[in-house]
Amino acid sequence: MSVLKIKDVSKIFPNGTTAVDSFSLDVADGELVCLLGPSGSGKSTLLRMVGGFETPTSGLMTIDGEDITRVPPEKRPTGMVFQSHALWTHMNVFKNLAFGLKLRKVPADEIKRRVEGVLELVGLGGYGTRSVTQLSGGQQQRVALARSLVLEPKILLLDEPFASLDQHLRERLREEVRDIQQRLKITTLFVTHGQDEALSMADRIVVMRDGKTEQIDRPDVVYREPQTPFVAGFIGTMN
Ligand code: ADP
Ligand code: MG
């Protein structure tokens, strides 16, 4: 069953740029779909529309059959991790995670239970009282992920979450995120311009260019039969 439906969604910015062009996609329950494409292909704009941070010029988006096209971000069952994670540096780790739950009037004992559970999940058990400024880049990115997960979103949206980290850490976090995603069975859209990231993580890959889909397939099919220079060129460099 598809949880998220994106139907003929376009985004034309006031300056006339068409960032997303009649894009459609159905994402199944528990699926991890990678949006892969070069810089400027419309990945972030698309993800921001699903998260409610941009309004589509036209088209329709539904989650579990409910129209969310014009619902504000805080009322959507989505959680987004941005490229620059923007943690609140004046709050400790616990408070960074608790903030959104307090806004939603979740009782204090449940906040504690959920925050501690999610910190364990991302490998930061016992880090609640630490200042986020004392954490490494990788740990901060785990806090950003935890901050989204603690809201228990139906759909997790990740926009190049590891872009600022070194290759080794990127590969480790990739595996961790995939592991957490599968354990929680959380439906996920993952934006990346890294072909290796998409090929190693995704259930399905959408290769984008100019706001449109160039290819949509399972990673093994994209690997064997790449339909785009963006992927074919990369695979060429691997062999
Ligand atoms: P990607 O994430 O794939 O790099 P983006 O979605 O950020 O692509 O951008 C897609 C296109 O839309 C690019 O041409 C970009 O310059 C343009 N764009 C993005 N945001 C805006 C904006 N706020 N106003 C005008 N053009 C924008
Ligand atoms: Mg982007």
TrEMBL record:
Protein name per its UniProtKB record: ABC transporter
Record-stated family: Belongs to the ABC transporter superfamily.
Originating species: Devosia psychrophila
Superkingdom of origin organism: Bacteria
Single GO molecular function: ATP hydrolysis activity
GO terms (BP aspect): quaternary ammonium group transport
Keyword hit for ATP-binding: yes
Coiled-coil regions, chain positions: none
Domain ABC transporter: 4-235
Keyword Nucleotide-binding found: yes
Keyword field: ATP-binding, Nucleotide-binding, Transport
GO cellular component, one term: ATP-binding cassette (ABC) transporter complex
